[in-house]
Amino acid sequence: MSNKYPRVLSIQSHVVSGYVGNKSAVFPLQVLGFEVDAINSVQFSNHTGYPTWHGQVLNETELDELLKGLRENELDRYTHLLTGYIGSASFLMRIAALVKHLRTVNPELVYVCDPVMGDNGHMYVSQDLLPIYRDTILPLADIITPNQFEVELLTGQKVSSIADAWEAVRLFHEKGIDTVVLSSTDLGTDEQLLALASSTQGSSETKLSINFPKFSAIFTGTGDLFAALLLAWMHHSGGDLKLSLENIIYTMQAVLAKTMKHSEACCERGSPATAKHSELKLIQSVKEIKEPLPTILADRH
What we know:
By secondary structure, the protein is an alpha/beta fold. The protein has a single domain (about 5-300), classed as Ribokinase (UDP-N-acetylmuramoyl-L-alanine:D-glutamate ligase, 3-Layer(aba) Sandwich), CATH 3.40.1190. It contains nine helices and twelve strands. A hairpin with a 6-residue loop joins strand 9 (about 180-185) and strand 10. Helix 1 (about 20-30) packs parallel to helix 7 (about 220-235).
């Protein structure tokens, strides 16, 4: 398969209005030159941070039907698989079988897993997904992007210090995961977030940290955007984790700055701050997605 036009199967949530899940991931990947096939694990009117939402949840039988069509028409050859929010244990088990099948079609498949389970000490998926992620899905993944809370869930260990975080990274590598990125932690300062990243190739390991400004607002879809950008830049850079991380942070900061500016402008006009005002400004950030100009550099460890 030509890597000029890499092809991604992205399985995560979808919203009709707004930017989370596939809506947050597909556009940046396309801008960066990827063909993207999307399967929506849920289809909601809007994300669940709004007062109400309505829609449908894809079950494992319906997933099987979609995958059957891809197989029958030889449309199941991908360079990458990206997974995000998945709501049921039975659906998640189908993902494990899918990874194995896709690797029979393309042994070079790269699986990027964002193990979306919760944040800020709160799980928003069923507890029965945790052992499946920990014991079945993670050993199949090449790249993972858990947040600090998800790291604690998956390792069973509290992350209270940077040393704790690096120990968790080591445990993930022991499961066979090549690249581990803790997309955001509270181990920085009041003004800054800290991301940690590690990649192993044979006996060599690259360990990085990067501090970046913390925004006062709460945004949704940022983890989905982060995972998509990581997939893209690790591919385009030939696995250069430092360059990838710096490009990602530049784009993320640019998107959030535009989003914050829009939200503040709405409030200045007398509108109360709502979830609608904080939807990621992805379309307005196409240049910053396509041509990142990193200003914050990662430190090597």
